[in-house]
């Protein structure tokens, strides 16, 4: 059976990366997609492949990405290699923009959306605590209009307002109901 593409979405600071890390720690069979991003490599965070905007544009034009989009003044891509992972029966996990969910559903045979939520107050606190962006960039991220979630997609909603370990357990139980 082909694997599922699990798209983790939600506002900046909600805990998408933390939840993905927790899920991969509990499920060694889960493949975490290494995204291609034009964000400076020294900013750290997730394990991503940095490329310049011009290289990104060339790779996108050459058909290197299963999905790609722009957000926060950056370009993000999901390399085509994920198709092989799915074809081999492995589930793959990646953080996507809510704006490309419809395209993701058109691209992958079995898409599951993991929608992570928390209150705006919690988001502001977590972004400050993470420290990857400066104050004005944090304000911009918090003020960004909330993208519309497409309807009709298989969606699991995880409220990550409480302890991370609880969210990881809830997500694992929802994704692997017979196996947790
Ligand atoms: N459930 C949680 N409780 C407390 N802090 C959390 C929780 N989830 C994530 N964090 C922290 O919030 C900050 C933002 O999390 P991150 O995973 O980078 O969010 P995102 O990828 O959605 O922007 C990080 O400092 C992270 O350690
Ligand atoms: O259209 P949206 O659903 O709002 O998502 C826009 C972008 O925000 C996140 O970026 P990034 O991982 O750089 O930031 P984050 O970790 O702060 O969410 C996510 O990965 C998308 O690329």
TrEMBL record:
The keyword Heme does not apply. It holds the Pfam family Guanylate_kin. Residues 3-176 form the Guanylate kinase-like domain. It catalyses: alpha-D-ribose 1,5-bisphosphate + ATP = 5-phospho-alpha-D-ribose 1-diphosphate + ADP. ATP binds at residues 10-17. Its EC number is 2.7.4.23. Keywords: ATP-binding, Nucleotide-binding, Transferase. It comes from the Bacteria. GO terms for cellular component: cytosol. GO terms for molecular function: ATP binding; ribose 1,5-bisphosphate phosphokinase activity. GO terms for biological process: 5-phosphoribose 1-diphosphate biosynthetic process; organic phosphonate metabolic process. Pathway: Metabolic intermediate biosynthesis; 5-phospho-alpha-D-ribose 1-diphosphate biosynthesis; 5-phospho-alpha-D-ribose 1-diphosphate from D-ribose 5-phosphate (route II): step 3/3. HAMAP family: PhnN (MF_00836). Belongs to the ribose 1,5-bisphosphokinase family. PANTHER family: GUANYLATE KINASE-RELATED, RIBOSE 1,5-BISPHOSPHATE PHOSPHOKINASE PHNN. Catalyzes the phosphorylation of ribose 1,5-bisphosphate to 5-phospho-D-ribosyl alpha-1-diphosphate (PRPP). This is Ribose 1,5-bisphosphate phosphokinase PhnN.
